[in-house]
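General statements about sequence and structure are easier to judge against a single worked case. Part of our work consisted of pairing the sequence of a single chain with a tokenised description of its backbone. The amino acid sequence and the backbone structure tokens for this protein are reproduced below.

***
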Amino acid sequence: MAALKLMRAPQKYVQGKDALLQFEKELGFLGKKWLFVCSHSGYKATHDKIEKSFGDSGATRRYEIFGGISSNGEIEKMRKIVADEGIDVVVGVGGGSAGDTAKATAYYEKLPVVIVPTVAATDAPCTGLSVIYNDDGSFDKYLFYPKNPEAVIIDSDVIAHAPVSFLVAGMGDALGTYFEARACDRTHSLSLEFGGITRSAMALCELCYKTLREYGTQALVAAEKHVVTPELDAVIEANVYLSGVGADNGGLAVAHSFYNGLTSLGGHSAPHGNCVAFGTLVQLLVEQAPSAEFKEVQDFCLSVGLPVTLDEIGVTADEQVRTIAKNSCVEGETIHNMAGDVTPDELYDAIVLADALGHQVLGDNTEGC
């Protein structure tokens, strides 16, 4: 029996310049006692606008700077605050770890959760899962939730004043969305929500890619100048909403398996999205996509500063490539959603070719891995 098709998304998505000035107006219906789980930078970037939005509403707000990673200890600390103060709503403010901590706290305490991203570096704000770590920083588990966040609210002006490298990484993460979902759809693989893939999901994934292609370079320049333009707003939406809801309901394939394989090297510093972008190029070679499509994606990467070679993501030795290929293909990895499956040897060949084609287009005569 074929899997039932399903679609999940945040209940409310709000985005725009100075959106945080409307925080209480848009979300005040959720409760009267609020806990804001903030990164240091997230607190600085959002506090004054959020406070101004509440005015004399009578709602209480508790701002708590969390420890930096979504660890079990941090989650327990936030749960105690919720219990002691009778909190109604939990809000994650900052990057992915702040959001993951807030999601987990709200889940365990059976409360609504709101996510306030202060960078557009990944699609995590809209997804129904968290990455949880042990207190020593080691990986513990993926925590899947029965629903997505009640709301995501993004102030585009905050994103425009964040480091541009975050926006670029977000475009890299979003770049894989359509191609990974397309691969899953072809093989009738399950989405991240363990359901069949809807036409709606595929439409969002395709729009994500089209938006990046059409507005990516203009959005990058706008962010460099710290101005909010329609092009920047379009790419923020692609990075966070279209990619987040698309990936959740469309599924993953080679691009994210490549990233997971890369992490097995330990100590890599390239942003998640940059690695996913290169992994997308690898996937196109694995599935023998038309050369025109590969060039289109490669050209996009070049236009916004995403990597097209291995050394740009810190991979410099052949043995590293073989380790990545091996660990990308372990049981349970999303690479197995590809038609005909993929062996470590096949993936190794595709990685080497993607790297060589990158050096070629850069006019670099040095040998890659």
